[in-house]
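Cont'd.
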Amino acid sequence: MATNRTFTMIKPDAVESGHIGAILNDICAAGFKIVALKYTKLSAEKAGEFYAVHKERPFYGELVEFMSRGPIVAAILEKENAVEAFRTLIGATNPANAAEGTIRKKYAKSIGENAVHGSDSDENAAIEGAFHFAGTEIFG
Ligand code: ADP
């Protein structure tokens, strides 16, 4: 079976609002298997590194400040066609445009504080997973 992996973070806004349990439940109910899971906090330096691809964007400073202001939950998820399936589950970047029932529609506050991250390609899923987890922390 062509199973693959994606990487996610429950962002500080959703953690602050007490949505960790509900979001993990939505993820599991959608058929994703959690193969790695961590409750942690990004330093501003680490958040900047993670989002380095957005360095030239006007919201970069705001994004780094937001992502390092409180704890996050990081996870590697497994499901057939995981990257695309997870992007569908979380919905559009801007919750105002996210489909009904999606995680961002239910829990996100704004285009910046949008509750969850989801990798946009298999290549980035592997890079982002390795950014947060050692091989010994992944249970596939
Ligand atoms: P996605 O997370 O849906 O892949 P992007 O890769 O475009 O979206 O952006 C990365 C993150 O940067 C978003 O999830 C969001 O937290 C933040 N972001 C994107 N666009 C804006 C914006 N216009 N203003 C503030 N923050 C933004």
